[in-house]
Amino acid sequence: MGAKGSTAGSGEVFTVQTLAQFDGTSLPMYVGILGRVYDVSTSDNFQAGEGYGELWAGSDATYALATLSLDKKDANYLDWEMGKFDEKQLTALAAWKSHFDKKYPVVGYLKEYEGRDLDLPDWAVQAVAKVKLPGVSGEDGIAAGTAPPKGSRVTTAFRRVTSKVGA
Fold first, then answer.
1. Beta-sheet pairing, 30-33 with 59-60
2. Of 3, 34, 73, 91, which one's alpha carbon is 20 to 30 angstroms from that of 120?
């Protein structure tokens, strides 16, 4: 299999409830992806109460990133299976995981992911080089036809949304 999303390793063990405290207001801002918890406090893209910070701060963003969703209800959505994601979703998830692994330190792991299959397929991991991440690789949004949440103060870079996954 491809990149591992293993929850085994060093670092603090979080639950979805304990992770929620780390929303960037009084504690650092953490985001979970594939069982790993990343410290995104240094990122300009994650600000408490706005943009991606409003969506995913103190939450698991795995499902939202795989489905390229800007819907807040997709944060902490844990009722998914790797085998049910389609090719574009697996490629998107592999690209986001690769981005977070390179840019942010892992500070812990989510207990809810213990024992789950978090392996990304090799082909999805290899396809990452071809993926242009929105707002990260010169693109300017998350999903085609999706607007940021009403009332959010996202930056201009995230106002227009497009998807180039699989292009």
1. parallel
2. 73
Question: Is residue 29 within 8 Å of residue 39, measured between CB atoms?
Answer: yes
Rounded Cα gap, residues 30 and 25, in angstroms = 11
**Both structure tokens of 165:** 């996954």
Residues 42-61 have pLDDT tens digits of 988 888 888 888 889 999 99
Chain position carrying tokens 């090799």? 122
Residue type for position 45 = N
Read off the pTM. Answer: 0.75
* Tokens standing for residue 7: 């929850």
Q: Could you give the dihedral angle defined by the CA atoms of residues 26, 28, 33 and 35, in that order, rounded to the nearest 10 degrees?
A: -90
CB atoms within 10 A of CB 53: 24
